């Protein structure tokens, strides 16, 4: 007797949904981290911000260097002059003739350089320079925070791909079992050992398992595209991921937690902000002190004048050298300096209060993250044992089903229980690992460990 399958199954086979025809390259966790660090847009922007801060904290932006300016100029005059001498007689007693000077050209050239240097400004630029260096280090910490958040985003998607990959394998196994049921049901029907109903039930289960597999594969494809976005690579890039998860020993975690205050990026940022506010107070106080400056200039001038009725033409060249010093002391500026100092002190006090608040919040977050991690790790251990239990139950049920001692419905229930146990174990495994990564971020060790 010829056995028949639902049309859906032939369509699924034609799409190659059950078996993989190509071997996808493995994208390891370390390779994913490297790609994200090199290509992720958010990380690139953060690194550019660090470059800007590095430029700002250089000596070229400190005000310690002098200013040197150069200037040059030239003028040209051309005149036609007529000088009359009304009533004047020459040596012969004749009226003195008019004096005419045509195309009288005068030229003037000058050039010079000026050097200006602030010798002392109340130490304002010194503290501003130190503040810029602290801001550079603060920007580095902000970039590190961006990288840590990106790594968490990366692994949340990476582990979702891993979870769905394992789920696809689970659903494939379930589908193979259901397909085997159809074969057995048809053989049994041929020999009169069961009814057509068993075949129909098996076909319904194959259909459901096929739909579950299709949905899981679609979710897996979407998750891979999400990962490609984080890695900033072609959305159609295909790969497989590493589904092996290793957990950090508890002793190492305790050491990380003990040193969290020295490594937590949020706390380090508050310390830098506190230092910057401290320098702001000193910069404001510099307004009480005088400013001393030095200046110097060197110039060259050339004047070429045409002859006139009374003077012969001249050609004068001069060289000028000027040196000077200045002292400026704003004895009273209407109180604006005093207001700036007071406001800077208040800002420092607010930053100190914010630091204490963040310290308390970080302590809370670490305790919560540790408890969540321990809870999820315990759940994962329970789910592992639950899979073992359901595998034993399914093996016994399969044996009983083949002997005809239980119905297909009871066998299907044992199969569903095993499938749920396997998918729940997959979920709990990656939930526990993500909880561990969140704990590592809070302790400042996320970028220092080997995953």
UniProtKB/TrEMBL annotation:
Compartments it resides in: Cell outer membrane
InterPro entries per the UniProt record, alphabetical: OMP_efflux, TolC-like
Assigned keywords, A-Z: Cell outer membrane, Membrane, Transmembrane, Transmembrane beta strand, Transport
Keyword Transmembrane: yes
Main location: membrane
Superkingdom of origin: Bacteria
Pfam families: OEP
Family: Belongs to the outer membrane factor (OMF) (TC 1.B.17) family.
Annotated protein name in UniProt: Transporter
Taxonomic path: Bacteria, Pseudomonadati, Bacteroidota, Flavobacteriia, Flavobacteriales
